[in-house]
């Protein structure tokens, strides 16, 4: 060790230069840091609640949902000032990047449908396509919401005083602040004196955690100031103030530099890492500096060395004595944090690794930079020497402790410990295990009040998902399964804190009621699976392909039951889950599996894993500290003594949590590992120094008093500095995570330091262990074993523009395009393949006939479904009308009745596909303005590329497109490709038309035998393939009558 230190002093300028260069590089990397919360790294991915949540999110969506509530100051929501805001905000969110447009739910979103019964059948249309202005229109909207109860308490309160928008966001850069910035940008435009707008949901709270965690940037300088006061009080010298802070500052720079270089952002856990490293590094620096002063003043008093020579010798001597034990203590401290890698939660592992690296950085600096710098600084002067010998508050405190330990009061120490254990054990019994994101903040904060208001007015801002899975496809269509889902919903809605449930069963019951003239007696699940399947097919003929994607998967094998909760308490959810398991075991078939997920169950899973991990982690640290300490001191008794401050810190933490009401949750569960990682070195420093004193031949009582007065003071300095460093977190007003850390860390440091100073010397004097009182004990150097252990720790943890063509007569081109595929009549087999964003398919086979009406524009289309079996025999009939709404009829074989559907505009989905009725019928040439953009080849065929813009807003609304760009073959003017933009100007879908065949040579008519449309917003696509297509078959008119539909 001496040769190493002499080498450091000899090349001190090289060491200092290298240190500064590394620090500069670290600071550059640290600039890359930002605070972002990624829930995926915070959750135990193997837990059943989390795996279910992931499956629900992958199949059904609903990952990050923000609720925005609008409450008028006067009256109810059925007034233009409110409904216009809903419409504008909905339109704005549809244009907001990152919003999952197909899952946006509000009164004016496409997803909110009015399923209405009519004398002749069923009507499916948007709840509010335009803002109602007349009393009759408002009454119609009210009636629609009252009949479609699925929207009550989800987007409309039962008292009609509040309406909400549910906006889902995708994962994206910038974390949750970026999400909430987008929300605020839309909401702020609509705030005024007439309405109250509240924002709630988990993203709102996670964004605040990101924001509040950044307070570390403000609190860090305050922590430095507080530590400065502690250090100045401890040493009363400039160097005693500056050197520990300089060491700690460099260690922080190195630690966060490694974090920045790794590309891992800060989050709720590792945002406090800088203050932690600062506190720990300062504490170790204090131990070294305290010993330096001891050695320097001893050399000046006992030798004739000059101040400079005494300075260099004191640097060497202090590091020889403290260096090995500092390495041992540093290994224990860093290992306490490295041990967090056992957690299944990525962000906790990250916190442990980077904090451990920071402590090792501090250890490296203390063993290199500090002695190099100390050797070129001026030694303490006479005034500083007098201050050191002057009695201080620290001397008085350690003298009092020494009197208790060495005097007649030693038994009182044991009695005090027994009383402490009893009180803390009572406190431990009172600890509540509960994780609630909303409990992290003061209830007086605005966003807390917003969320509370929404939970009071609507179903709830917190979600739980029940994933109902059958053994095979179409299992969810089983009437018994749907009835059980409905019964489960009623059961859940009878539970406290459950405000609303939604599932596919709600829509099936509403369809059944609507098909029976809105008779309330039919608001139930039909007994026939075939009828349920035909209802769903019937709905799809005027609804959107993805309307039910949030409630059932494509194969009808799995359904999602969404539960809106008014609390996010994990303790509550655990009790509710127990009730759900009992209920589902009694009401569901044994082949049906019920999984549980969602934001609240995920919080419960996190807490469950953290509590188990905390116990495992404490045991692990206990074993590791015991083994390392036993190896360092070559005594099992020594290992047991070193554990005492650790155990006291843990017991004190749990006891204080129980008595103060601080919950055991994800943030507080980390504190024991932190406390014991920091506090275990107290015992190591104390025991090593006591052995050293006894080895000099000092009598026992004097040795204990000397140790407590020297190393003991340094331990107090360390405990106070750590407590002070974390104490600044109390200034983080409104943020309970920081306050809990400040209180519990300070309490753990004080209790572990007092136990080291009182209990360990008392036990040693009482039981006189051999490893202390053997005269040869001090000859053992702990450095080699520490280096071996440290090595083991590291080994285990670580495009060019195209030329424009000459413009052709666009009107003539488009007219020919419009009629080129209109054959006189046709018959064909067709296969409809519907594919969702996850690749699941629904295949329907049909036989269809068409016939052109006398005007040469409109067609009559009859489609008979041949498969799958549950919709076999279902027939749809479309009679096109150029000047009015089309007539759509459907025959349901389960009811043996024909029912009429209503199509209000051409933008409705054609028989549940991604093609609209306008896509199938064609677009009136005179309603669009055209522009030739360019000419290009498509699959070897020269094509015109023509842009079409609607001439009026009415045409845009009716067709659902603000722009179309089509690729038309120059030889036959057939469309081979088309891109579509929705009404908000966003790219909606693209379609291709291939395998184009000449089907009527006489009249020059062509037909694409394969059509594909892909919705780029939802990921859904449809493929239609025609087989046996024949034109001009003299199809009779009677084929297109409701009477003919009923024929088998």
Summarize the structure in words.
There is one protein chain. This protein has 1048 residues and is α+β, with helices and mostly antiparallel strands. The chain has a domain of 408 residues: Multidrug efflux transporter AcrB transmembrane fold, CATH 1.20.1640.10. Helices cover 51% and strands 17% of the residues. The chain is built from 33 helices and 22 strands. A 15-stranded mixed sheet has the order 2-3-15-14-13-12-11-10-22-21-20-19-18-17-16. A four-stranded antiparallel sheet has the order 7-8-6-9. Strands 4-1-5 form a three-stranded antiparallel sheet. The chain is elongated and about 125 Å long. It starts with a helix and ends with a helix. 50% of the residues are buried.
SSE layout:
Layout (H helix, E strand, L loop, with lengths): L1 H9 L1 H19 L8 H4 L5 H13 L3 E9 L7 H15 L18 E5 L3 E6 L8 H13 L15 E7 L5 H13 L7 E6 L1 H12 L2 H20 L2 H25 L10 H30 L4 H32 L7 H22 L1 H6 L7 H8 L3 H14 L3 H20 L16 H12 L4 E8 L9 H15 L4 E5 L1 H11 L14 H12 L17 E8 L4 H18 L5 E5 L1 H35 L2 H25 L10 H25 L4 H28 L8 H32 L2 H4 L9 H15 L12 H10 L5 E11 L5 E12 L6 E9 L7 E5 L7 E6 L4 E6 L14 H5 L6 E11 L2 E10 L2 H7 L3 E7 L5 E7 L5 E14 L4 E11 L5 E11 L10 H4 L3
Parallel strand pairs: 3-15
Antiparallel strand pairs: 1-4, 1-5, 2-3, 6-8, 6-9, 7-8, 10-11, 10-22, 11-12, 12-13, 13-14, 14-15, 16-17, 17-18, 18-19, 19-20, 20-21, 21-22
Helix pairs in contact: 1-12, 2-10, 4-23, 7-8, 9-10, 9-11, 9-26, 10-11, 10-13, 11-12, 11-13, 11-26, 12-13, 12-23, 12-25, 12-29, 16-26, 16-27, 17-24, 19-22, 22-23, 23-24, 23-25, 24-25, 24-27, 25-26, 25-27, 26-27
């Amino acid at each position: 060790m001496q040769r190493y230190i002499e080498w450091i002093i000899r090349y001190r300028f090289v060491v200092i230069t290298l240190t500064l260069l590394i620090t500069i590089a670290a600071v550059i990397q640290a600039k890359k840091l930002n605070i972002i919360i990624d829930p995926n790294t915070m959750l135990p991915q193997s837990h059943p609640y989390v795996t279910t949540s992931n499956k629900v999110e992958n199949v059904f969506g609903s990952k990050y949902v923000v609720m925005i509530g609008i409450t008028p100051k006067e009256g109810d929501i059925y007034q233009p000032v409110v409904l216009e805001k809903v419409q504008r905000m909905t339109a704005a969110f549809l244009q907001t990047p990152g919003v999952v447009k197909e899952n946006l739910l509000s009164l004016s979103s496409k997803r909110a449908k009015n399923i209405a019964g009519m004398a002749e059948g069923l009507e499916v249309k948007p709840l509010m396509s335009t803002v109602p202005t007349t009393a009759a229109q408002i009454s119609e909207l009210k009636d629609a919401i009252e009949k479609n109860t699925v929207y009550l308490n989800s987007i409309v309160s039962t008292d009609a005083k509040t309406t909400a928008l549910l906006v889902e966001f995708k994962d994206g850069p910038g974390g949750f602040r970026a999400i909430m910035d987008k929300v605020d940008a839309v909401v702020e435009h609509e705030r005024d004196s007439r309405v109250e707008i509240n924002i709630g949901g988990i993203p709102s709270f996670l964004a605040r955690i990101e924001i509040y965690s950044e307070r570390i940037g403000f609190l860090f300088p305050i922590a430095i100031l507080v530590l400065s006061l502690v250090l100045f009080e401890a040493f009363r010298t400039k160097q005693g103030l500056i050197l520990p802070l300089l060491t700690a500052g460099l260690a922080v720079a190195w630690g966060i530099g490694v974090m920045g270089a790794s590309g891992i952002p800060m989050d709720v856990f590792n945002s406090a890492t800088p203050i932690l490293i600062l506190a720990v590094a300062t504490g170790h620096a204090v131990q070294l500096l305290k010993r330096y002063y001891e050695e320097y003043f001893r050399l000046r008093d006992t030798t004739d060395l000059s101040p400079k020579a005494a300075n260099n010798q004191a640097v060497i001597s202090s590091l020889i004595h403290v260096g090995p034990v500092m390495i041992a203590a540093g290994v224990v401290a860093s290992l306490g944090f490295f041990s967090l890698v056992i957690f299944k939660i990525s962000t906790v592992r990250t916190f442990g690794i980077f904090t451990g690296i920071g402590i090792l950085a501090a250890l490296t600096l203390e063993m290199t930079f500090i002695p190099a710098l100390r050797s070129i600084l001026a030694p303490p002067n006479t005034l500083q020497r007098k201050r050191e010998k002057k009695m201080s508050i620290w001397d008085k405190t350690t003298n009092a402790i020494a009197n208790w330990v060495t005097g007649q009061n030693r038994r009182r120490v044991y009695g005090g410990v027994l009383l402490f254990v009893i009180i803390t054990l009572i406190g431990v019994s009172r600890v509540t295990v509960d994780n609630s994101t909303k409990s992290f903040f003061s209830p007086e904060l605005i966003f807390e009040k917003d969320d509370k208001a929404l939970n009071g007015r609507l179903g709830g801002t917190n979600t739980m998902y029940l994933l109902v899975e059958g053994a095979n496809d179409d299992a969810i269509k089983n009437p018994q399964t749907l009835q059980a889902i409905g019964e489960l919903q009623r059961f859940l809605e009878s539970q406290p804190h459950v405000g609303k449930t939604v599932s596919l069963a709600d829509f099936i019951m509403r369809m059944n009621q609507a098909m029976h003239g809105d008779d309330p007696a039919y608001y139930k699940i039909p007994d026939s699976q075939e009828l349920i399947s035909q209802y769903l097919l019937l709905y799809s003929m005027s609804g959107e392909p993805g309307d039910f994607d949030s409630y059932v998967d494509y194969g009808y094998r799995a359904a999602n039951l969404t539960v809106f909760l008014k609390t996010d308490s994990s303790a509550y959810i655990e009790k509710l889950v127990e009730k759900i398991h009992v209920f589902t075991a009694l009401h569901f078939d044994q082949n049906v599996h019920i999984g549980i997920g969602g934001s609240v169950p995920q919080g419960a899973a996190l807490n469950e894993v953290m509590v188990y991990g905390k116990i495992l982690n404490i045991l692990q640290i206990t074993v590791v500290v015991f083994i390392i300490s036993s190896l360092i001191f070559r005594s099992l008794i020594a290992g047991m003594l070193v554990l005492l401050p650790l155990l006291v810190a843990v017991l004190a933490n749990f006891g204080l949590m129980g008595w103060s009401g601080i919950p055991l949750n994800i943030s507080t569960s980390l504190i024991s590992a932190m406390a014991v990682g920091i506090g275990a070195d107290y015992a190591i420093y104390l025991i090593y120094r006591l052995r050293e004193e006894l080895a000099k031949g000092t009598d026992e009582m004097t040795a204990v008093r000397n140790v407590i007065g020297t190393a003991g003071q340094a331990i107090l300095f360390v405990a106070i500095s750590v407590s002070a460093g974390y104490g600044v977190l109390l200034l983080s007003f409104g943020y309970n995570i920081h306050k809990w850390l400040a209180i519990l860390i300070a309490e753990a440091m004080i209790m572990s330091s007092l136990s080291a100073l009182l209990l360990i010397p008392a036990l040693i004097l009482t039981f006189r262990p051999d490893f202390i009182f053997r005269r040869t004990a001090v000859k053992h150097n702990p450095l080699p074993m520490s280096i071996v252990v440290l090595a083991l720790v590291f080994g285990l943890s670580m495009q060019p523009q195209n030329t424009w063509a000459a413009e052709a007569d666009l009107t003539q081109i488009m007219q020919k395009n419009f009629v080129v595929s209109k054959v006189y009549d046709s018959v064909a087999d067709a296969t409809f393949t519907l594919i969702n964003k996850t690749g699941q398919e629904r295949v329907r086979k049909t036989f269809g006939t068409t016939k052109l009406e006398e005007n040469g524009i409109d067609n009559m289309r009859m489609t008979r479904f041949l498969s799958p079996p549950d919709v076999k025999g279902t027939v749809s009939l479309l009679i096109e009308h150029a000047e009015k709404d089309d007539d759509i009829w459907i025959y349901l074989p389960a009811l043996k009745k024909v029912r009429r559907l209503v199509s209000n505009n051409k933008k409705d989905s054609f028989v549940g596909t991604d093609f609209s009725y306008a896509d199938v019928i064609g677009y009136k040439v005179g309603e669009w303005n055209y522009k030739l953009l360019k000419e290009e080849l498509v699959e070897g065929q020269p094509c015109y590329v023509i842009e079409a813009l609607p001439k009026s807003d009415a045409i845009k609304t009716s067709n659902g497109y603000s722009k179309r760009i089509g690729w038309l073959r120059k030889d036959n003017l057939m469309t081979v490709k088309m891109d579509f933009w929705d009404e908000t100007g966003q790219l909606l879908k693209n379609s291709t038309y291939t395998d184009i065949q000449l089907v009527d040579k006489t009249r020059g008519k062509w037909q694409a035998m394969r059509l594909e449309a892909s919705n780029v917003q939802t990921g859904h696509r449809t493929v239609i393939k025609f087989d046996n297509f024949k034109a001009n078959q003299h199809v009779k008119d009677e084929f297109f009558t409701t009477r003919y539909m009923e024929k088998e």
